[in-house]
Amino acid sequence: MIKYKLVCKNCDLKFDSWFASSKEYERLKKKNLLSCHKCNSFKVEKTIMAPQLINSKLKTNEKINLEKYNKVKKIIKGYQKFIKQNFKYVGDNFAYEARSIHYNDKKKSKAIYGRASNEDLKELKDEGIDAQMIPWVDENEN
Ligand SMILES: [Zn+2]
Q1: Range of the domain at 11
Q2: What is the pLDDT of residues 109-137, one digit of tens each?
Q3: pTM of this prediction?
Q4: For the chain, which ranges sit under pLDDT 50?
Q5: What is the DSSP string of 56-102?
Q6: Do 110 and 66 share a domain, yes or no?
Q7: How many Å lie between the centroid of ligand 1 and the Cα of residue 44?
Q8: What does the alpha-carbon distance between residue 125 and residue 74 come to, in Å, rounded to a whole number?
Q9: Domain match, 12 and 39 both
Q10: C-alpha 25 to ligand 1 mean position (Å)
Q11: What pLDDT does residue 47 have?
Q12: Dist. CA 37 → ligand 1 center (Å)
């Protein structure tokens, strides 16, 4: 005997059902003998077994860390939104752009953001150019 968790694609009801074997399940499914207890729909399918994620102390800590990380990420994303709305993006040219603003055209100076290496930042600082490094979350990451 084998127990499957089934889900009704029609009404989203989840229920357990016993079968003689996985083949038996396939056979019943093909013959439309599997139906939802609630709405009698035949759109009943096996659910994929969710792995047990939180079953040890270590895993629980990982989960807490993930929650903390997500909270921090939310804050960072808030900064990012502000920066994107108010700063000009200069990509990898950050050090160059920061210098040209500092040395050439102070009147037109606009806040910029972009990528820079630690060395770039150190050099800029040595030259008296103010630059802040903030953590950045990739846009594609959720
Ligand atoms: Zn149903």
Answers
A1: 2-46
A2: 668 888 888 888 889 889 988 887 777 77
A3: 0.46
A4: 50-56
A5: SHHHHHHHHHHHHHHHHHHHHHHHHHHHHHHSEEEETTHHHHHHHHH
A6: yes
A7: 8
A8: 29
A9: yes
A10: 18
A11: 83
A12: 6
